[in-house]
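pinging the channel bc i need a second pair of eyes. not urgent but kinda urgent?? the chain im working w is below, pasted from the shared doc
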Amino acid sequence: MSAGLLAGMRVVEAAAFVAAPLGGMTLAQMGADVIRIDTLGGGLDFHRWPVTEDGTSLFWCGLNKSKRSVALDLQSPQGREIAMALACAPGDDAGIFLTNFPPRGWLDHDKLRARRADLIQLTLQGDRHGGSAVDYTVNARVGVPGITGDPRGAEPTNHVLPAWDLVTGQMVAVGLLAAERHRRRTGEGQHVKLALQDVGLAVMQHLGFIEEARRGQPRQRHGNELFGAFGRDFACADGERVMVVGLTGKQWRSLCEALGVQQEVDAIGTRLGLDLSEEGNRFRARRELGDIVGRRIAARTLADLAADFDRLGVCWDRYQSLEQLVRDDPECSPANPIFRRIEQPGVGDMLAAGLPLDFSAVPRVPAAPAPRLGQHTEQVLHEVLGMPAGEFGRLHDAGIVAQAT
């Protein structure tokens, strides 16, 4: 068993796609025993792209590391009965259930709570009314594609990073831990509901986007420029591109010193009547500042620039491709403690990321492979439900349970 911070906690998960599996994996990578309930042949995301040449989903493997898998025929009454028994199994550190499927049938909270009164269930929904939504539709709803991309463009610009899924996945983990703490203090279970769309709306308000629009000043497109301060991409003499940021006063002073532009910057401030020590004024003067910064960067190679930037503590980085990241960057390798090489079933050698959190009280839990579908069916049913080998064999022969070989 894991020696992580959450060692001993058991979470049962019936989920697909990003946010809910990410929440479960986050708990698993802190040491919890997270048991996936999988359908025979795999669920909705079992073949989700990207995939290997033979069709193994890198997506599924990436979001289910360190979990155990139980494969059941959930179309059958016996399979559903086993699933409910797992979700409601006894134990002070058990009775925690996570799903992003509609809470009906065997997933209905009232049915599950009838078996275990202190059950903690977190149901992730698309919207607060129980409707369907995914990251792309939430992004469209909250207006982000309209302020993303080329300032001259009129069409919405989607992006590939599922921001709301990622934030929601972490809130799934936080919500379950908060409910578990409440149960320890009071003995009470509860049904926690979380809507992907509400996460998007909340974050938009937290960051000021909603209030800007309410005040008649909706955010505009600014391309690659950092809103409200100075930051942008620039090309070096050798064609390499860098992102530089002068958000804080120290970052801005370091950038000016590294490029030797302080006198020119002061002249711009005088001409425009702006105190450029204030970050908002640097945004107002971004065109003029970008011209002088761009000229200085364009006159130097990346290697030359990097030496001065690093020496003076400039906030910057080089643009690199995914191929460059995995081939050349030591931070994306086992030199970084979050990574290790594992043997992933169906994939082979894989570079796997563990939990980014580094707790001083316990050592890191190394990244572990995602399970084969049904890899732990017999083990879990024996450990959690006390199922004898003969009963498991009977259910296996009847096609109610499946065991990976």
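so The chain has a mean pLDDT of 97. and The chain has 16 helices and twelve strands. — does that match what u expected or am i reading it wrong
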